[in-house]
TrEMBL record:
PANTHER family the record matches: BACTERIAL NON-HEME FERRITIN, FERRITIN
Protein name: Ferritin
Upper lineage: Bacteria, Bacillati, Actinomycetota, Actinomycetes, Micrococcales
One Pfam family per UniProt: Ferritin
Domain of life: Bacteria
Alphabetic keyword roster: Iron, Iron storage, Metal-binding, Oxidoreductase
Ferritin-like diiron domain mapped to chain residues: 3-148
The keyword Iron is assigned to this record: yes
Length: 179
C-alpha cells in the first residue's frame, strides 16, 4: 500500500499565496457588484478587504523570501461576480473566510508536524486574524438577512458601526510593504 504524505508546510505556504490572491480578486468582484448597485459603504468595505487579502498574500511572500525559500506566483482561481441580492456576496465572503481559516489551520498543523517553530510562530497571527474575519463577515451577513429587501439598512449599519482600523503592529511584514 503506497504511503501518502501530506503537503509540506512550504508547499502549503506557496499554495496560500495563490489562495490569498484569489480571495483578493473575489473581494474586488464583490466590491464592484456593490459599487454597481449604488451601495458605496459595502463597496468600500469590500475594496478594503480586497487590499487586506492582497497584503496577506504578500506577507506569505515576504516570509518565504526571508526564509530563503523559492517563491512562485501563479494565476488565481475563477471568482463569482453575479449576484441577485447583497446577502449572496456576503454569504460567499463568509464561506471564503471559513475556507481560509481551514487553510490557515492546515498550515499551522503542518508547521507543528514538521517541528518548524518559526513557521508556527508566523502562523499565529493569521489564526487570530481569521477569528476576526469570520466573526466580522458573520455579523455582516446577519445584518443583511435582517435588512431583507431594504438594502440601505446595511449601508446605514456600516455608517453607524464602522470604525477606522489602524495598522496592526503585530502583523507580519508584507513584501513590498502593505498597501
Amino acid at each position: 500500500m503506497p504511503i501518502t504524505t501530506s503537503p509540506s508546510f512550504v508547499d502549503l505556504l506557496r499554495a496560500q499565496v495563490r489562495n490569498e490572491f484569489t480571495a483578493s480578486h473575489q473581494y474586488v468582484a464583490i466590491a464592484i457588484w456593490f459599487d454597481d448597485h449604488d451601495l458605496p459603504r459595502l463597496a468600500a468595505d469590500f475594496y478594503r478587504q480586497a487590499v487586506e487579502e492582497r497584503n496577506h498574500a504578500m506577507m506569505f511572500v515576504r516570509y518565504l523570501l526571508d526564509r530563503d525559500l523559492e517563491v512562485g506566483i501563479s494565476g488565481v482561481d475563477d471568482v463569482v461576480s453575479g449576484f441577485s441580492t447583497p446577502e449572496e456576496p456576503i454569504a460567499l465572503a463568509l464561506e471564503q473566510e471559513k475556507q481560509v481559516t481551514a487553510q490557515v489551520e492546515a498550515l499551522f498543523r503542518a508547521a507543528r508536524a514538521e517541528d518548524d517553530v518559526l513557521g508556527e510562530q508566523f502562523m499565529m497571527w493569521f489564526l487570530k486574524e481569521q477569528v476576526e474575519e469570520v466573526a466580522s463577515m458573520n455579523s455582516l451577513l446577519t445584518i443583511a438577512k435582517r435588512a431583507g429587501t431594504d438594502w440601505f439598512q446595511i449601508e446605514e449599519h456600516l455608517a453607524r458601526e464602522s470604525v477606522a482600523e489602524g495598522a496592526d503592529s503585530t502583523a507580519p511584514p508584507a513584501a513590498g510593504g502593505a498597501l
